[in-house]
Amino acid sequence: MTKTVKIFSHAISRRSFLISVGSLGVAVAFGGLVRNAFGATMSLVGEGDYLPNAWVTIAGDGTVTIMSPASEMGQGIMTTLPLLIAEEMDADWEMVRIVQAPSDADKYGNPGFYGIQLTGGSESTRGYYELLRLTGAQTRKVLLSSAANMLDVSVGELTTEPGRVVHARTGRSLSYGQIATDGSLPDPLPQVTEADLKPTDQWRYIGRRDIPRIDLPSKVDGSAVYGIDVQLPDMLYGAVLRAPVQGEQPERIDDSEARALPGITHIVPLSYGVGIIGETVEATRRAKDLLNVTWSTSSRVRNYTSDRLLEHYRDVGRDLSQTGVEAFSEGDADSAITNAATVIEVDYMSDLVCHATMEPMNATALVTGDTVEIWAPTQGPTGTQGFAAEVVGTTPDKVKVNVTLLGGGFGRKAEADFIVDAVSLAKEVEGRPVKVIWSREDDVRHDKFRPLEAQHIQVGLDVNGNITGWRHRIVADSIFARTNAELFASAGGHDDVVTEGAHFNYTVPGHRIEYIRQDNGLDIGFWFAVGVGYTRFSIECVIDEIAAARGTDPLQLRLELLKDQPRARNVIETVGQMAEWDRERDDRALGLAYSDAFGSHCAQIAEVSLNRETGVIRVHKVWCAVDPGVAIQPRHIEGMMIVGITNGTGHALFEQINIVNGEVQEGNFDTYRVIRMSEAPEIEVAVVPTSGSPVGGIGQAGLPPVGPAIANAVARLTGGVRLRHYPFLPERVKAALGA
């Protein structure tokens, strides 16, 4: 391996992570650190009357308010996006206040999501990056123009320092606060292009490790407001009893006992369940338990049994006569496989998984005539406006959405079912706000699960073990068929989120991807890394299977297949050095996996051991090298990799939803198994940005490689035993060992 340079690298244990975060919180709460250790802060409203554009407001005291257009759900985006504006306008980060942008897609929509306000898909930084930098550059030009008029000099004689315009020749300067107080906005406003953006060697904030997230202090001292924390005058509470099988409706409701409970004000029949409104959360939950409902029995989902369907999906994938939509084709993969000297043919499968966000679904709504106001931890303000308007019979412009902090999202809070609950019940008590909080059982059993899926892969090899063709068939339901039917139709029935990640950057002469949709009535949805989470599982495991068939080192094979991909090679070589790939371990083994999903290159190596008697896998350590293109906040990128790796480890080993005859069998964390602190691996991350490359998405980039890295480690530890079914439950591991 050639030598690479680790630009940013940090090893972190569970204990040191908790101590570092905890000490930060103590310092914030008790004033133990100086102000410049934290910089910008969160604010509820903007300050000042000097408005260069919709994104920035400047007050007379120099305070700069910057709008944050994306939903903060722990991924740090409320710091990252405003930082881009602050960088280009030369704001003093100490004087910056960050405000959650209102629901207004015309002003704050994400260019990466067709101009709507939606946070997901690791698209926030990628979508807003250029827009916000240009916005900052234009703001700087506005300030320079105003200052030129005030100082009676030409704009070309002026420069900026953080929070100040400087006329070097005379030594005069104006603070941004002075300009805001006495200056005027130029008319017309100056225009900007990419040529006006700062070169990288002039960045003050982008790339620095010492700029912490602005949301952390409030989360440590308890002042942070999540959706579940919202309190309003005269507020009522709501709960909804849903059918045990999705798609059923209440046919007969006996609510006599529920109505008799103290504190219950309304029982509301809904098309999909029964709503309860009361004066306390406890009263509504007790009333919900006392409802006696006879449900319809006509839903197609009653035929949904996940184990049986997954076997069917596998059979469909194997049956080449059952064709689907061609998602990608390059070269003649079919002929290459037919004429290959050797064909590797395998099936990979994944169970349904649920989001299990720490903050369950909740929303508060107030309906007054034809206007609606909503307070919610939503990833999609634009969609929230549309669904709320439909419930009330008004227009989206009459719906105001106040986005709170999210206690986890992972795609689940891009949905609107919990919003519809709150608005439907608030409509019944017009003029009084109603807060609906789902129980954990509601949250698990009525989730929009990541799709059940099976993948059939055929790889043709020539006599020298070189890949001649790769055929990848993905069998699963569609997310877009439900959430964006127009887009699904225009794509010819292809769901590029479900198949995302199947198109890789390995060099193969023939490559074909097929999507074979299955429709069994169950709503499935976006889940952390969605398709990439399972397509890279199969791809990276198959790469190791090819290496084994050739007798080639898996790391060297990847480098060979990525000979024209310097960024990919760099992260693989870097992580190999970090983990000492070639060093032998006693009773442990290393596994490698790589992903270029979301525009970021990420390679990971997992060190695992295996108890052959119990089938329990233990992941001891994970090394990760990631190239995000531009490392806006390298310390934050490390944190997001830790999140993705921890989540991905739990997803690979434990997480599973079982449905029998339409009914979800799990209901809480006693039955839906997530990773425990004691099971989380030690994690070491190296951030290796590439100058001049596009900015990549980070929020989900850490999850896809960890599962296949674990599976590949098990294969090396056991002499080739392959785990091909997520999650790697002990009984599945023992079955594979005995096969």
Automatic annotation (TrEMBL):
Coiled coil: none
UniProt cross-references to PROSITE patterns, sorted A to Z: TAT
Record-annotated Aldehyde oxidase/xanthine dehydrogenase a/b hammerhead domain positions: 221-299
Keyword Repeat: no
Enzyme class: oxidoreductase
InterPro entries: Ald_Oxase/Xan_DH_a/b, AldOxase/xan_DH_MoCoBD1, AldOxase/xan_DH_MoCoBD2, AldOxase/xan_DH_Mopterin-bd_sf, N-heterocyclic_Hydroxylase, OxRdtase_Mopterin-bd_su_IorB, TAT_signal
GO molecular function: isoquinoline 1-oxidoreductase activity
Domain of life per record: Bacteria
EC number(s) given by UniProt: 1.3.99.16
Keyword annotations of the record: Oxidoreductase
Keyword Oxidoreductase in annotation: yes
The protein's name: Isoquinoline 1-oxidoreductase subunit beta
Organism expressing this protein natively: Vreelandella titanicae
